[in-house]
Design brief:
By secondary structure, this protein is mostly beta strands. Helices cover about 0% and strands about 75% of the residues. The chain has strands spanning about 1-5, 10-15, 15-30, 30-35, 40-70, 75-90, 95-115, 120-135, 140-155, 160-175, 185, 190-200, 205-220, 225-240, 255-270, 275-290, 295-305, 315-330, 335-350, 355-375, 375-390, 400-415, 420-425, 435-440, 445, 450-455, 460-470, 475-490. The strands form 2 sheets. It has a 26-stranded antiparallel beta sheet that branches. A two-stranded parallel sheet has the order 1-4.
């Protein structure tokens, strides 16, 4: 543990770590607090990284808890974590690999001068993570797990400006190379749980807030190998500006807040030279006040495969289960933009088992709403979209399938006491969206909803559209289904 700069307050840590290794490699981890002048920043976390170049193996494990609350430079900064991280890697051929797991949070308060009105300007921002990532080139295995809780908070002294955020859950990663030419990775992305928020007052006296929460998984494998990733848990954060007059209540009256929960699991498999499989998936919500109010959110899943060998199959599957998401943006008085939703399951599967064949499939739910003003005009817009798509090489053996359901709901609204727009949808049994291409059966697409609605007050632009198509004339063949709803209202 390293403590640098001037620090005061209470610091606690329990537990420890151990590391073992052989061959050429490295293992590292850290927990630290850092501050700098009158712009304090704190990062608390534990990291486990195992790396190997050439033949050899390495493993590392760390666990513990730590929390800090520091009054520094006109700010109160809080961070903490409680949990464990581990990593391991082994190479049985020439190659290179590295996997990392991380559990921790960052909090920063930055002073940016005086505003035109003589007030203090500031920038509060922070983030919390539970994540794994890595890559493996060659024959071998690599694993990483992060599990626990992390949180942050920043308050600007003498004001009501504040940010907060927390993550709780587990992220796991497994990479396997079956030949010396195997490539397996998270594609340069993090697999896990993330949240961040920000509150700013500029020198022009503009007050801005934002919040993002997400759970995600990314995997890619080329040539002979396979990989698996699972991310499950909760991410949430919020931000208040200095103009709030009510008592601050987390998750209820922030200027910007977001929440995401659920489980994402992905698996990719390639069994021959020139074969590749990829997946990505996310459950996400975001909000901002800048001063326009904007919110968006929903789950998405993507799977793709390419086969250039005569191997038994190339396969990719990813699912987002028990998804829950919401975000809110609030301005003066009753100005607001809100969205939220739930979904039992969103699953995308792609498989081919013939040379020179491809398959791609994806699905998503997206809700957004906003509120903005121009001079004396006020306007609110909103849109929801349920989208499923699949394509595959014609006259080949394939499966490309995305299914959405069985149960799900979504709602969005924006406006104030003088006008508003709202909309939403409900999925029910036998009322789901899917796009399925299967070489042993019929091409199918569906966009059935139990209910979809749009309402505006006063009456303004409202629309709900649905489209579904299955076509097998051209190469590649395709199927898709979609339901959209939107409103635009202004006064």
């Amino acid at each position: 543990m390293i403590i640098s700069g001037f620090a005061s307050g209470a610091t606690e840590i329990t537990g420890g770590w151990n590391a073992v290794g052989g061959g050429a490699g490295s293992s590292q981890g850290d927990s630290y607090v850092s501050t700098c002048g009158s712009d304090p920043s704190i990062t608390l976390g534990i990291t486990s990284t195992s790396s190997v170049f050439g033949l050899g193996s390495f493993s590392d494990q760390r666990n513990g808890s730590m929390s800090v609350s520091l009054p520094l430079g006109g700010y109160v900064l809080r961070t903490g974590f409680d949990g464990s991280v581990n990593s391991s890697i082994s190479l049985n051929s020439g190659g290179v690999g590295s996997v990392t797991s991380y559990l921790g949070a960052t909090a920063t308060g930055m002073s940016t001068g005086h505003t035109l009105a003589g007030n203090d300007s500031y920038d509060l921002f922070g983030s919390a993570d539970i994540k794994t990532e890595g890559y493996l080139v060659g024959k071998g295995t690599a694993n990483a797990i992060a599990n626990g809780y992390s949180s942050y908070g920043v308050t600007k002294s003498g004001t009501t400006a504040e940010i907060w955020g927390q993550t709780k859950g587990r992220s796991s990663l497994e990479l396997v190379g079956l030949s010396s030419s195997s490539y397996a990775s998270t594609g340069g992305m993090s697999n896990g749980i993330h949240t961040e928020s920000r509150s700013t007052q500029t020198i022009l006296d503009e007050k801005k807030s934002s919040s993002i929460s997400r759970i995600s998984s990314y995997l890619s494998v080329v040539n002979s190998g396979h990989a698996k990733a699972i991310s499950t848990g909760v991410a949430e954060s919020g931000s208040w500006n200095s103009d709030i007059s009510d008592s601050k209540i987390k998750g209820q009256n922030e200027n910007a807040a977001s929440y995401a929960a659920g489980e994402i699991s992905g698996y990719v498999e390639a069994n021959g030279e020139g074969d590749a499989a990829d997946i990505s998936s996310v459950i996400q919500s975001s909000s901002s006040r800048d001063p326009r109010l904007y919110v968006s959110g929903g789950p998405a899943a993507y799977a793709a495969v390419t086969q250039n060998s005569s191997s038994s199959r190339t396969y990719a599957e990813v699912s987002a289960k028990n998804s829950t998401w919401s975000s809110s943006a609030r301005g003066a008085a009753s100005q607001k933009a809100l969205e939220n939703g739930t979904l039992d399951d969103l699953t995308s599967v792609a498989r081919v088992n013939q040379n020179d064949s491809n398959a791609i499939t994806f699905g998503k739910i997206l809700l957004y709403a906003d509120y903005q003003t121009w001079s004396t005009i006020k306007a609110a817009t909103g849109n929801f979209s349920l989208d499923v798509y699949a394509e595959a090489s014609k006259n080949k053996s394939y499966l490309a399938s995305t299914t959405m359901g069985i149960l799900g709901t979504g709602n969005m609204t924006s406006g104030d006491t003088s006008f508003s727009g709202e909309g939403g949808f409900m999925l029910a049994k036998n009322m789901t969206h899917y796009a399925i291409l299967d070489s042993s059966s019929t091409i199918k697409a569906s966009n059935k909803v139990g209910r979809a609605f749009i309402n505006t007050n006063p009456l303004a632009y409202e629309t709900i559209t649905q489209s579904a198509k299955a076509e097998s004339v051209a190469d590649p063949i395709r199927a898709w289904g979609r339901t959209d709803g939107a409103y635009i209202v202004s006064v």
